[in-house]
Amino acid sequence: MKKINDSVFFLGIADRERKLFDQLVPLREGTTYNSYLVKGGEKNALIDTMYAPFAKEYLDDVKSAGVKIDYIVSNHAEQDHSSLIPALLEIYHDAVVLCSLKGAENLKNMLNVDSSKIRVVSDNEEVSLGGKTLRFYMTAFVHWPDTMFTYLVEDNLLFTCDFFGAHYTSFDLYADNSPALELAAKSYYAEIMMPFASFCRKHLALARKINPAMVLPSHGAVYKDPKFIFELYEKWTSTEVSGKVLICYVSMYGNTKILAERLLNSLSKLGISAKAVDLMETDEGELAEELIDATGVVFGSSCILSGPHPRLVYCAYLMSILKPKTKFYTLIGSIGWGGNLIAPIEANLKLPSIEKLDPFVIKGCPKPQDFEALEAFARAIADKVAELKSA
Ligand SMILES: Cc1cc2nc3c(=O)[nH]c(=O)nc-3n(C[C@H](O)[C@H](O)[C@H](O)COP(=O)(O)O)c2cc1C
């Protein structure tokens, strides 16, 4: 247990060995699950709890505080924060779980929490701990429909659960505002929050309006200087067109790779910010990070068994669920004799109003005339970027 002030304590636990989150998100250095204890003059509250595998450590820590737990605030019912609520209710029989309406439904469905133990709170509702007041803000969809913020009024502390979180363990208590933390927060945003960008913008504005002295998320470090994470979220959620073009390719014998590298070079010469990633060497997390500001995506694939490499189809599907603000896509590739490179990608790429530019496909290895044609293809992409930026 680490002290934040005389009334507020951090009960986070680092899970450094964890390699994958939600069976989808690769972790660079594990993660932390953060829970907080708020001691009031009359009552005490836990804000979010802990992931079940850490039951012993966590419950010992809570008990060592030597206070009765009157309230268990569940800002979000995902099991990494809520799965020890039943165990806590076994210890603290009179404790009441405070959560949103959707949170109540989720806690009942997922953890069999008895309705009699739950009190649903509404937007702006306050609960007094005696000299300390918890105020709740309904912040649906950052990232489940149940999510809410808890604000400790007298101390000006904002508990945001997953919002502003980071899978980051290299800290003692407070954020060091380092490039490593920025990358962890970026990765977290891309994989967890980006699909809900409009909700993120709305709840970011709320957090800014509250103007807390600290932001206390449920993964990663406590932000003593919330401006750091607010400005990053401002940038990532911005609707501005960055103009960046991301080339995502797979190549068996190097033909498509040559096209990808030539295109990257041509785009750079035309003043376009571009990046090429080999999808066989890029995990979901890295791809998601690159997609945050990708205005255009160029899929690169050779033909394999009549279609694109399956990794490209997966990439298109991933884009559909992560919902980056990508405005256009196209394709480069090399075939042997025939097949359809674009159709399986198209069938899986479901992004509202994304525009398709004519693809560029060659036979076998690139020839001098192919390189010339590729220059024209690069100019068409640059023109589209310029058009989007000036719109
Ligand atoms: C396993 C395998 C399956 C292939 N299937 C097809 C195919 O169905 N249609 C086609 O036109 N070419 C096919 N090809 C040929 C490749 O698309 C072609 O050699 C291409 O130039 C390879 O480009 P790369 O080096 O970027 O992978 C196949 C090649 C391999 C190795």
UniProtKB/TrEMBL annotation:
It comes from the Bacteria. Residues 245-391 form the Flavodoxin-like domain. SUPFAM superfamilies: Flavoproteins (SSF52218), Metallo-hydrolase/oxidoreductase (SSF56281). In the N-terminal section; belongs to the zinc metallo-hydrolase group 3 family. This is FprA family A-type flavoprotein. CDD domains: flavodiiron_proteins_MBL-fold (cd07709).
